[in-house]
Each structure stands twice: as C-alpha cells, then as structure tokens.
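Appendix B: complex inputs.
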Amino acid sequence: MKITEPEVRYVADLANLKLTEPEIARLAKDMDEILTHMDTLSEIDTSAVEPMAQVLYPSEELATLRADQIIPPIGEQAALANAPLAGGGYYKVPKVIER
Amino acid sequence: MSAPASLTSLTIGQVQAGLAARQFSAVELAQAALAYAQAENPKTNAYLRFSPERALAAAERVDRKTGAGENVGPLAGVPIAIKDVIVTKGITTTCGSRLLENYVPPYDATAVVRLEQAGAVILGKTNCDEFAMGSSNENSAFGPVRNPVAPDRVPGGSSGGSAAAVAQGTAVAALGSDTGGSVRQPASFCGVVGVTPTYGRVSRYGLVAFASSLDHIGPFGRTVRDAALLLETMAGRDECDATSAFAPVPSYSAQLDGKVSGLKIGLPREYFEGLASESGDLIHRATNQLKKLGCEVREISLPTTKYAVPCYYIIATAEASSNLARYDGVRYTTRANEDTLSGMYRATRGEGFGAECKRRIMLGTYVLSHGYYDAYYLKAQKVRALIAEDFRKAFAEVDAIVTPVSPSPAFKIGEKIGDPLEMYLSDIYTITGDLAGIPCMSVPCGKTSEGLPVGMQILANHFDETTMFRLADAFEKAGGFAGSN
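Resulting structure:
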C-alpha cells in the first residue's frame, strides 16, 4: 500500500479540500494505483542529471525593457465584479479574528 | 448576395475568396454560421454558449472596412470557436467547471485579441474537460461532447468541443489548449488538424492555468494551411506573459510549397510497440507516403519514452494543485456558506470541483508534500530533462519525427471513465512533446474499418513550426488525409 485512508485525509487537509467518506475510499484506491505506477521512475539513475526547471528555449531577445508608459488598470469595480461577496472596495470573507 | 451553401467544409481561403468576390458579406456569413451551429449543436454539445452580439459586431467591422477599402486582415469574417478555458471579456468562461459557472472575465486573452484584430468572428465558447483535465471530455460539468463522426464515442479531450465543432462544421477553425495532448488527441479522434506550438510561441495570457510549464494555446483547422494561419496570427512576444518567446514569427502559410524531398524523418521505435493494429497500419501507410514524397525515413530511438507518463502526471498534478488553489471562494463567484474561513475554503472546493480535478489536486499535493518532494517532484523534473535530451539528440539526426497520436481511435463514452490510470496511460504519445516543449501536431491519416479517424503526429525541433507545417501540408496535398496511397 502506497497510501492509506488516514493519509488521504491528511493530504485533503493540506489541499483545503472537503471530501466525503466514499470519495476518501475511492481516492485511496486510485492514488495507490497511480503512485505505484509513478514509482517506475525509481528505475532510472538520475544522479548526474540536473532537474529541468526551465522549459522556454533561448531565442533572440528583441527588447527586454518596455517603455515606461502608464497603462490604466481594469479598476476596482471590474476587479471585484466576480467576487461572491465584496464591500467598500474589498473582498469580504467570514470573520477571522474575534474581539 | 447570400451565405455559402455549405458551411460544413468551408476553409479560410474560401471565406476570403467569397468576401473578396462579394458572394456574401461577413455579417451574412456570421448569421448563417450562428444559425447552423445553434441548430446542429444538440447533436454533439460541442458549444457551451454562443456569443452572437460579439460575432455580429466583429463581422460588421469587417464589412465596414471592406466598404471603405481598408485592409480587413488575414482572418476577415472567419467564424471560429474558443475553448472555454480561454477568457473572453464579457462572455462567461466556465472552464467546464461548476465553480466558474457564472464567471464573466474582465479581460480578453491575448490570443483572442490578436485573432479578432485579424478579422476573426467568435461564434462561441466550446465544451472541455473541467480545467482541461481529461482525455475524453467526459469530465465537463456541463455534459460530455459526442464525437460528430460516431456519436456514441468521445471526441477526445480535453479540447473535445473545439475539435468536434471543426469536424462537425459548426466552426471553420477553433482554439484549444494542450498540456499533455489536449489539442492533438481530440484532433486525431475527430479527423481534423490540431497544433501544439513550441512552449512560449503563443502567449498564455488569459489561458486559465492548469500546469504552467506545460500549457499551450493551439489551433484546430480542417486544413494545414488554416491551422498555420491561426498560429502565425496569434504567435509572438506578449508583454503580458513573461514566458512568451521573443523569437520572430515566420509566415508559415506562405511556405507551404509541397516540396519535402530530402527531408529526414525519424520513426521512434518506442512509439510503435503495443500499437492497436489498425491505427498502426494507417501510420505505416502514411510513412510510406512520406517516402514517396522523397523523405528519408529512418528508425530512431527515444529511450526515456516509457517513463513519460509517470513523469508527466507528477509534474502536471503538482502544478495543477498550486494553480487551482486560487479557487477558494473569495474571488471567483462561487462560495459555500460556512461560518469559518477555513471551513468556507474547504466546502467551496469540495462542492465545486469534479472528481478528476480532486484526484489531481490530491496527487499534486501529495507529490509536493514534505518527505515526498525529492522522490516524486524532483525526480520527475530530472526525468523531464532526459526526455528533452532524447529529442535534442534526435533532432541532430532528423528534421522531423513521425509517430501515432493515440494508441487507439475514439473509444465509447463511459468505456474508460472508471479507470483513471488506464486513461492516463493513453496519453503516452502526446505528453512527451509537451514535456520537451517542442512543436507537434496531429493530421488525419485515414479511418479504421469502423470509420473512425486516426491521426498521425509530426514533431519538430523547437521554433521549427515551419518544417512541421511543410511536411503536414505536403502529406495533405498528396491525399494523405484520406489514407489513400
């Protein structure tokens, strides 16, 4: 077993994901299979390999610096238009600090 | 004047010719295309919504310019569809997710801006797997897409709606996104052309992020030339995406001369083991056709191929778990009512995401978590370097690589959805190009005895889309799309 149900609950907690009991059971099974398959990577010796952190291939740079122009931002109203709850120019969330 | 009789097989060249000869106006074409697409859509569920006001406004601009004798742009009046993971200002963009059911973006993706500036007419937004995660389009919160060629089968995924719209004739061309094959695999399943350009070739600004080091916007068309035209219009540096490349954009479409004699083609032996026989036969027939065109075809080896699936699903899920953290109930329309902040986060995400997104968030969080990072994520980044190195060595010997797109043609709706690992393994031939960041595309190369389309993949060196398109175009002109010799 690569992963147990208590471990699934722990990872769900890290991911801020509320799961139902059937979802936890299903994920334990699926993740166990997938992680077992992922373990095939241990077959390859990568001790002398640098991790690939950059995908972008080098190309001629035309202009790294842009002109110092003022571009109007989208504005508070448009930025908050998709908020489930907003007010006074802010996103609103459930109370975090009790006084 | 009247709109063309057959919208279903229209190419960009035919739209340009029709407008130039005043056979129809852009508004007439847009109206006819919208009416046809809306009437036909229930057969496939390819579109999630239509954007008639925006389409007609764009068409009116084209007609006004035509009337004034101004340059109308290379895509003037061309009806296109946009995958619903690419944001469109004022048009709901759901990413196939309940979480974003009511999300109306305040801006346009750069690719969308550039296509509209060139005269394109956006008919609507297309269905896809939730947040582009899937290989069958069955993970959409708004129902699966049916393959227009075989309605009991999937169109492929995740850009299933865009591929289906182009195949069905409800759009002349379309935009999709590709992270592990999400343009090429549906293109092969539906029998159209689908292109994944070099990483950074097209700005990702406005493409809702899935796995940022793997995400690409790519075009679908019915011909190689149409796909090339869309790509050359969208490509190029964009200040809004720091990873967009500075490399100059050649006119791909101007270089399609059909001459590929002497081009060196590699067939990687690892891609032909365990291939479903009919698909394999069609690919072999296609490579014979390339030989007849004068290409030098030789076997090559890409030895790290067998590790590509685990490598990809570690990196892609790790990046996805970070990118999807933003759907927290604070900014993007949907919130579960809970008394505490953390309870609200957890319930919003638990109720909002579908099963596949949850599975990938969980896998990604696991592989990045304390104690597992080195064994999974760092290891995968090293294997990714080996996969890129395989291609670097291969392109020292050959100009292009030809492979299958998918181990099998379109499967039945429901056939694989219960087995996520099997679904992941079917991505084997398409994920390597994304991991290496090189350009790749799918072109039709015939149909199985059941009439299901099969795609041939062409991969080229980074920023060498020109060679890829020239080979694909020569194959198309030689009748290769029909699978005839």
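The mean pLDDT of chain A is 91.
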